[in-house]
Amino acid sequence: MTMALPDLAAMEAWGRRIADALRPGDVVALSGGLGAGKTTLARAIIAGLGHDGEVPSPSFAIIEPYDPPAVRLPLVHADFYRLNHPEEAQEIGLDDYRDGAVLIAEWPDHAGGFAHEPGCLSIALEVGEEGRIAIVEGGADWLGRIPV
Ligand SMILES: Nc1ncnc2c1ncn2[C@@H]1O[C@H](COP(=O)(O)OP(=O)(O)OP(=O)(O)O)[C@@H](O)[C@H]1O
Ligand SMILES: [Mg+2]
């Protein structure tokens, strides 16, 4: 499926609809080049889960956890850009962070990718003529649940 995201308001609204659909264990894998809008969409999803306030870009920390009651579900926001090998995701304890949580992953391929997981919603962002275009694919758990 493709989704037109002509401006920041569209990004914000879609992020909130994705947030409403999320269940523990899901992954939102956000790919796309520099400036494609990955962090913008991640921030909208995190706000949609209830977080009120700033969402630091995890490009330095790599992993940024958020826990209830400030958010509806525990979630981990990760930016794997700086990983040199997928194994490093395990070394920083990704599996422990993910236990019972939603993972929002920027540069997911740098962590080995998550598209094989039934709970993975893969979103590839591209610069379009107007704003951004998202190419969306969901794993088996997302059947009938992909927000439009
Ligand atoms: N749908 C949209 N329409 C127009 N501008 C957008 C849209 N989404 C994001 N932007 C703008 O694109 C710029 C880059 O967005 P963002 O920082 O989220 O990209 P990124 O993919 O996280 O980049 P990086 O890989 O460098 O961290 C920002 O200025 C943001 O406001
Ligand atoms: Mg970013």
What are the salient characteristics of this protein?
148 residues; alpha/beta; Rossmann fold; seven-stranded mixed β-sheet; 26% strand; binds adenosine-5'-triphosphate; binds magnesium ion
CA-atom Rg in angstroms: 14 Å
Which fold name is given in CATH as the topology? Answer: Rossmann fold
CATH architecture: 3-Layer(aba) Sandwich
Please work out how many helical segments DSSP would assign: 4
The domain tally reads 1
Query: Please, what is the average pLDDT?
Result: 96
Residue stretches low in confidence (pLDDT < 50, at least 5 long) are none
CATH superfamily grouping: P-loop containing nucleotide triphosphate hydrolases
Proportion of residues in extended strands: 25-35%
Distance between the termini: 9 Å
**Quick one: CATH class?**
Alpha Beta
Q: N-to-C SSE series? A: EHEHEEHHEEE
Shape designation: globular
Residues in helix, % = 10-25%
List ligands, each type once.
Answer: adenosine-5'-triphosphate, magnesium ion
Structural class: alpha/beta
